[in-house]
Design brief:
With 408 residues, the protein is α/β, with parallel strands linked by helices. It is built from 15 helices and 16 strands.
Length: 408
C-alpha cells in the first residue's frame, strides 16, 4: 500500500481577460446624457445604470424621445416588471448586447437604462457605461459589463470608458442626503463617502488586478472624525429610518463582489436597512362567473385564466400550473407605493387563496398580503370595481416602463 502524503496547495492560474478602463467622475447628469446620446449616435452600445427604479424610469423617458430622433434604440430594464415582461426584455437586450447580436451590432447605436438587475448574470457587453455612484463593490460589478469579450465588434472610436455620476467629495461628506439624493436612501452614507474617497483620484483601472485593492481600501477599518464619524456611527447603530448593521468588518462578508452574487434593487437596500414588500397581481380584468362558480382573470397579454372557487375541481398538477402562470404576473412593491389593500375575505371570494397566501384566516379588518391592480387601456392602475388604486398617487403599468408610482 502506498504511503499517504500530506496534501499540498497548488496555485490555479486562471485565464482572465485583463481590461484597462478609463474612469471619469461626472457631477452633471445633463452632460452625461449628451455624451451617451453622442456615443450611441456613433453606433456604440451604451449602458446607463441608476440605483432606483424611479430614477431609471425618469432617465429612460429623458433619453427615449431624443434617441428616437437619432435612430438610436433605447430600452429599460429593472425589477418592477412582471416576470413575463422582464423575461422578454432580458432576452431581447441580452441578444442585442451579447454575442447573438454581433452581426447587427454596428447597424445602430443602443442605450439600455437599468438598475442593479444589470449587474446580475446577464451576458451584456457595453462599449460605454454611465453609472450613478454606488458602493465600490457594486461599481466593479457594473464595470464588469464593459468590453467583456475581446472578439466583440466595436465601432471605430469606441473606448473602454465609464462615467460615474458623483457629487463633490467634501460636499457629500457634509450632507450625503442632499448630494447623493435617492442613492443615500438605498446605501449607507458612510459606505458611499468611503467609496467616493477611494474613487476620487482614479482615472484608470486595471481589471481584475485592481479589484482587491479597491475593495480593501473601501472597507478597511479606520479611525474617523467629524462628519465621517457620525456616518460610521449611523451605519453601525442605525437611525430612526434605518436599522444599524454590524461593525464595518462585517461589510466585506455581505459585499456583492466577494461572493459573486448580486441582489436586485428591490432587495439591495436590505444590506443596510430592513424593507418589506407587497406582491401586486397585475391584471387586465377580474370577474366573478357565478354560474360557473369560478373567476375569470384576464392577463396583460389578453389571455383568460379560469380560477375555480373550489379546490377539488382541479388536480394538484393543474393548480401548480395555474399558480405558476399567475405568479408570473406579480410585481414586488414597497408598501408606500403599493395599491390599496383589499380585505382577504374579498379576495377569497375570487378563489385566489388557492394560489396565493393571503394572510391570517382571522380576517376581520386585517389586510391581505396580496394586492390587486387592474390596468386600463391608458395603462393606469385601478383597484377592484374601479376603485382608486392609491389615495396619494397615480399608479401605472406599461410594458416599456414597468410599474410606476406618480405622486399627485
Amino acid at each position: 500500500m502506498a504511503h499517504s502524503q500530506a496534501p499540498q496547495e497548488l496555485p490555479v492560474i486562471a485565464e482572465l481577460s485583463r481590461q484597462t478602463v478609463r474612469v471619469q467622475l461626472q457631477p452633471n447628469d445633463q452632460t452625461a446624457l449628451e455624451q451617451a446620446l453622442a456615443r450611441a449616435e456613433q453606433g456604440q452600445q451604451v449602458l446607463w445604470v441608476e440605483n432606483t427604479v424611479k430614477e431609471a424610469q425618469s432617465r429612460y423617458l429623458d433619453l427615449a424621445a431624443r434617441a428616437a430622433e437619432l435612430n438610436i434604440e433605447c430600452g429599460l430594464l429593472h425589477s418592477r416588471f412582471t416576470a413575463v415582461d422582464r423575461a422578454r426584455l432580458e432576452a431581447y437586450w441580452v441578444d442585442a448586447f451579447g454575442k447573438p447580436g454581433w452581426q447587427h451590432r454596428s447597424a445602430r447605436g443602443r442605450i439600455l437604462v437599468g438598475t442593479q438587475v444589470l449587474e446580475q448574470s446577464l451576458d451584456i457587453d457595453a462599449d460605454f457605461i454611465v453609472s450613478r455612484f454606488a458602493p465600490t463593490d457594486m461599481l466593479l460589478q457594473r464595470l464588469g459589463r464593459l468590453w467583456r469579450h475581446t472578439q466583440t465588434p466595436r465601432v471605430r472610436g469606441a473606448e473602454c470608458e465609464a462615467w460615474l455620476l458623483a457629487p463633490d467629495l467634501a460636499q457629500a461628506i457634509q450632507n450625503p442626503i442632499a448630494e447623493f439624493g435617492a442613492t443615500a436612501h438605498v446605501y449607507s452614507a458612510y459606505v458611499l463617502c468611503r467609496s467616493l474617497q477611494v474613487w476620487q483620484t482614479r482615472q484608470q483601472l486595471y481589471l481584475p488586478d485592481d479589484i482587491r485593492s479597491l475593495i480593501e481600501a473601501t472597507y478597511a477599518e479606520q479611525q474617523e472624525t467629524a462628519e465621517m464619524a457620525r456616518w460610521l456611527d449611523e451605519l453601525e447603530n442605525g437611525t430612526r429610518q434605518r436599522k444599524g448593521r454590524q461593525a464595518l468588518r462585517q461589510l466585506a462578508r455581505i459585499g456583492l463582489a466577494l461572493d459573486g452574487k448580486t441582489l436586485p434593487e428591490s432587495q439591495v437596500q436590505t444590506r443596510y436597512s430592513e424593507a418589506d414588500t407587497f406582491d401586486v397581481l397585475i391584471l387586465r380584468n377580474l370577474q366573478l362567473l357565478k354560474e360557473q362558480q369560478s373567476s375569470c382573470l384576464v392577463l396583460l397579454d389578453g389571455q383568460e385564466v379560469i380560477l375555480p372557487w373550489q379546490r377539488h375541481r382541479l388536480s394538484k398538477l393543474q393548480w401548480k400550473k395555474l399558480t405558476a402562470t399567475l405568479m408570473r404576473q406579480l410585481v414586488s412593491i414597497r408598501p408606500s407605493e403599493a395599491p390599496a389593500a383589499t380585505a382577504p375575505g374579498v379576495l377569497e371570494k375570487y378563489g385566489l387563496q388557492h394560489c396565493f397566501y393571503l394572510g391570517s384566516r382571522d380576517w376581520q379588518d386585517d389586510e391581505s398580503l396580496l394586492r390587486i391592480a387592474l390596468v386600463d387601456q391608458a395603462a393606469m392602475l385601478h383597484g377592484l370595481h374601479g376603485s382608486a388604486a392609491h389615495d396619494k398617487a397615480t399608479l401605472e403599468y406599461r410594458t416599456d416602463l414597468g410599474y410606476r408610482f406618480i405622486k399627485s
